[in-house]
Sequence to fold (310 residues):
Amino acid sequence: MAAFPALDALIESFRNRRPIRAGSLIMTVYGDAIAPRGGTVWLGSMINLLEPLGLNQRLVRTSVFRLTKENWLVAEQVGRRSYYSLTGPGIRRFQKAFKRVYADSNPEWDGKWLMVVLSQLDQDDRQKLRQELEWHGFGTLAPTVLLHPQMQKVELQAVLQEFDYQDEIIILEDMGEGSAATRPLRLQARESWNLPKLAESYQSFLDKFRPIWSHIHEKGEPTPEQCFQIRTLLIHEYRRIILRDPGLPDDLLPGDWAGSAARQLCSNIYQKVWMGAEDHMNEVLETADGPLPPPNNKFYNRYGGLSGLN
Fold:
């Protein structure tokens, strides 16, 4: 395999992370690579795919078993082999999440807000729903009031229905319609979403992956296995940040917002390695019917359209 010091350092950093959170990486691979290609693979081939990243057989098996118990994955036994795929709820959750991961820009803001009031819930239910809404990008305006500049009411109602809270929550729409992104509003955004901490996460991402981009730019496309490793760690790290990012309009963000540079870097690298990664998975991953099927059409819409198609 061609020398790639920046990738070696990236893999070593991931291997040394404690805890290593193998389950999270496995879900990254399912969401990014397996779901668009039929969604099901043989566990043994998944073990072979992830071993070079530092996930040994025992760790992968234990993590997959845990993900199955948590209703993220479901198993199908064919002979002596186990084949795993995302569950229905797992697919829906990842469709929402990965839509944000592969967006090429934030949607324009029309000045409207979606606000929810949690005061009618008891403390435990309030905390559970708050965590879910924060995962969807809501910020805190007051202890029982959260707000979002982009989410539509129908999307919020779908979340509330999952928890059976649709009759317990006050929803206010169109607050601040047509308002400009004034200085007080920008300061409030900074407080409600802890933008400085989020910016630090984006800067760390840039520091990790700029050497990867420099190497590719100077040396050319890596090997298929290296492409898979880069793509997997790239999306894994970016996903962990973007899902904490509310997707605030540019008008509410600092002018030197690191998230913009991180999004562009992620897109640039992905465009360079996605095809090689697909070639590597063709060689390693197996389904009950043999090789993986080709990606679905939606796969090619990522980052505004994947280039380099045959």
Notes: The CA atoms of residues 97 and 262 lie 17 Å apart.
